[in-house]
Amino acid sequence: MNSLSDIHQRLRAAGAGPAHERRVLRLWSHGLPQDSGPRAIESFLPKSLRDALPAVTSELDGLATLVSQHPGEDGSVRLLVRLADGQTCESVLLPRGGLCVSTQVGCAVGCRFCMTGREGLLRQIGSAEIVAQAALARTLRPVRKVVFMGMGEPAHNLAHVMDAIDFLGTVGNIGHKSLVFSTVGDERVFERLPRGPVKPALALSLHTTREDLRAELLPRAPRISPADLVEAGDHYARSTGYPLQVQWTLLDGVNDTAEEIEGIVRLLHGRYAVLNMIPYNTVDGLPYRRPAWEKAADLARQLHRRGVLTKLRRSAGQDVEGGCGQLRARGKVAVPV
Ligand code: SF4
């Protein structure tokens, strides 16, 4: 039962009508017990569904369970989450009501600087398991924004991710521009996102304006030029009314050069976009280093002066464990629950 359609079928088989389904799923996705709410469950659900509900609820609760949590000084908390088959993935509670979820166990893109990319793709995370990460997070704190930036490339699990987005943007009560689809760039994304009933904001992991360097850093990302990616992202952003979020993991001496500054100005000036620069979290065993904060701040100032809206961010939870995939890779349990 790892997709939302499995859950719908299960509830219908137990006698649920559309209103019953909506109620059960709304409570679950908000992290609330099934006997909460103003209307007593006994007076609302048919008996066949009431009888089936304990087993269904226990399966829903088992879709994503908390293994450990790792609080950071910035208010974020990294969560190691166990899926029903025993695989694990990571979610991150972000400051101000955000949540970062995983869409795959492992990832096939193989970015050179990413721990998740090292193990390849192990399996897809189903739409219900994606929503279950939000349901689990909501048992810990309110969630008003969900970013699809954890383990995995959402474009490689597009149907499940879009089902989860449609669900979270309706039953899950998350504002559409507060759902952020993150991708390295893939034709299928630019075709599919504008067609959905819920249109998320788009984050594009660009990391460099040089095609040769991008092929080296993101070896299995689709070969689309940075200029074409920005063009497609800008087009989608204008159609939704929320700016394109261009993600740039700053790697010391690699993509923080004068040449890249020129490339960024060329690509992003005049675009409906914001550049998010995130200094890399150094990972043991990988050759990349985080640039000094002052150097990163200087780059951001230069870009601002040249008309590129730039935000320099500290990646959430960096004081906990570094980049995504490390909790899982190390099987580390800092705060058992
Ligand atoms: Fe996959 Fe994202 Fe890691 Fe790249 S950075 S390997 S796309 S999880």
TrEMBL record:
Keywords: 4Fe-4S, Cytoplasm, Disulfide bond, Iron, Iron-sulfur, Metal-binding, Methyltransferase, S-adenosyl-L-methionine, Transferase. Its cofactor is [4Fe-4S] cluster. SUPFAM superfamilies: Radical SAM enzymes. GO terms for molecular function: 4 iron, 4 sulfur cluster binding; metal ion binding; RNA methyltransferase activity. Transmembrane segments: none annotated. GO terms for cellular component: cytoplasm. It is found in: Cytoplasm. This is RNA methyltransferase. InterPro entries: Aldolase_TIM, Methyltransferase_A, rRNA_lsu_MTrfase_RlmN/Cfr, rSAM, rSAM_sf. Signal peptide: none annotated. Residues 93-319 form the Radical SAM core domain. One of its GO terms (biological process) is tRNA methylation. Belongs to the radical SAM superfamily. RlmN family.
